[in-house]
Design brief:
about 325 residues; single chain; Helicase, Ruva Protein, domain 3; alpha/beta; 15 helices; elongated; about 10% strand; Rossmann fold
Length: about 325
């Protein structure tokens, strides 16, 4: 029968409405039961999953949801929209960052009360730090917590070589902030926010930066603006005072690594895993890299039809991840 950790993981994926993970967990249980000789039970689980998927697909075909707040006209090439379901408990972050995010959410939820006293909530945020440490996920979580759409700015559609065209497109985005409340994410923000001293005076990016400074200064909408960058040192100094808050992300410490490994590995038998050893070995990895390590180790366990996940298998996945990271450096 399924173990307690597997049952908890199944319930969590159901409550999170994460169908893909729910189906994957059930199939893992079925495979485990089949290896134990419970062939009939395993087959019944697989049949039930197939029936559930077929029923779901038929329902979605008959009830195609009508997209709302989809970018139209020129905005279609500038903004990508989604409606995240992530919540703050889904993130493992240092306590100081969690406090700041909770403060932002609290001010947003009391926006009318603050406005009635002539005050504005924090809503222009600059997120800095290394890749894979939660900056982009934070934008999704804020949108999910507030029940508003996440609009991601498409830099490939925004930046062009034609004089004045990029600034005009940027104005369209800031107009959208007024018309459709949401979280607007400028990822890889250093591509448009680099220091003006480093730019060609007649370059298009120079004009874009100046336009951004003007637009963000004048913006009085109720949307959240989130700029995320891995290279804060390259940003123009004038940008920093335009933001209400600057949040610096960093690699997880031992406590956060331990929590993340235990959370990600809860779907398998992990009672014999030496968490102290794998946490020590994974120092310097980002949250995203740790998630990838766990997923790779679990996939190998399933493919090789092993009963339990071993410390050695996880250490091997960590070693491979670090080798890939070093080769990219």
């Amino acid at each position: 029968m399924p173990k307690a950790e597997q049952i908890k993981a199944l319930l969590k994926s159901y409550l999170d409405n994460d169908e893909a993970r729910f189906y994957s967990l059930v199939m893992q249980v079925a495979a485990s039961e089949a290896r134990k000789g419970h062939i009939k039970f395993a087959e019944e689980l697989k049949i039930l999953i197939d029936q559930a998927k077929n029923k779901r697909n038929a329902f979605q075909h008959e009830h195609v949801p009508i997209p709302i707040l989809q970018p139209k006209g020129e905005l279609t090439g500038l903004l990508a929209v989604e409606f995240p379901k992530l919540r703050l408990p889904d993130m493992i972050l240092p306590s100081d960052i969690l406090r700041r995010l909770n403060r932002i959410l609290k001010e947003q939820r009391y926006i009318s009360k603050l406005n009635s006293h002539g005050l504005n909530p924090r809503r222009k945020l600059l997120l800095t730090g290394p890749p894979g440490c939660g900056k982009t996920m934070t934008a999704s979580v804020l949108a999910g917590e507030l029940g508003i759409p996440l609009f991601t700015v498409r830099l490939d559609g925004l930046i062009t070589k034609y004089m004045g065209e990029t600034a005009a497109k940027l104005k369209l985005i800031f107009d959208s902030l007024e018309q459709a409340r949401g979280v607007y994410l400028f990822d890889e923000f250093d591509s448009i926010g680099s220091q003006r001293a480093f730019l060609n005076d007649v370059g298009e990016i120079h004009r874009v930066l100046n336009s951004f400074l003007v637009f963000i200064e004048k913006d009085k909408s109720q949307s959240l603006i989130i700029a995320a960058t891995n290279h804060p040192q390259s940003l123009d100094h004038a940008l920093f005072r335009r933001f209400d808050d600057v949040v610096e992300y960093r690699h997880p410490d031992q406590k956060q690594l331990n929590s993340m490994f235990k959370n990600r590995l809860s779907v398998v038998d992990s009672k014999n895993i030496d968490f102290v050893k794998i946490v020590e070995a994974s120092q310097g990895l980002s949250y995203a890299e740790v998630a990838s390590v766990c997923d790779e180790a679990i996939k190998d366990m399933i493919i090789e039809e092993r009963e339990v996940l071993t410390t050695e298998a996880i250490l091997e996945a960590i070693k491979e991840k670090k080798e890939i990271k070093d080769n990219r450096a």
